[in-house]
Amino acid sequence: RSMKNLLVKSSLVLALVSSAALAQGAFVGGEGDYSFNSKIKTKNIAKSEKNNFNKGHYGLGFYGGYDFDSYRAYGGYYYDFKARKNAGEADAKWSKHKLIAGADYTPNITENFKAVLGGYAGLGYLSVRQSFENETSKKNFKGLLVGAKAGGQYSFDAHNALEFSLKADKTFYKKNSGAQLRDTSVGIYTGYTYKF
Fold first, then answer.
1. How far is CA 55 from CA 65, 122, 123, 135, 178, in A?
2. pLDDT tens profile 152-166
3. Are the CB atoms for 129 and 140 separated by under 8 Å?
4. pTM
């Protein structure tokens, strides 16, 4: 009888350990997003000229990290496709590269569904071509990016998951040739994650 109890307890412990092992581990993934409110604020320090450009745009991202079950850490590369917008006599085109690191809180809501609440930070690289009064200039900016997201993740099995979320971030760029920029982006994304 004691042997039977030992086998039952050992089986339970093994099941719990296996479950925890499946919940934790490295992951990689990709996502597509749409920023329905991408806003670029430009300011020419010398001439005191200000322009605002609002335009939705699409983006792609790739990421990898480690899942600790109830939270995860990751790093990723994201690219926002070129957007174009007119503002009075000014015309602007811009695209953006982002390198970020983030952490998410991922509590279980049901057996297969998790909430995703997190924050991230990194570097933003913005390329802007602006035309104003028949003059065209192209400048590249880099700066600190901070953001947050909230959504959910549905796991089909131990390895495959689909994620969706609302996210927002802001980038503070360094001045370049007398020009100062701020970039705010709010959008949604859907991603696929593979868990090892």
1. 31, 22, 21, 22, 24
2. 999 999 899 999 999
3. no
4. 0.77
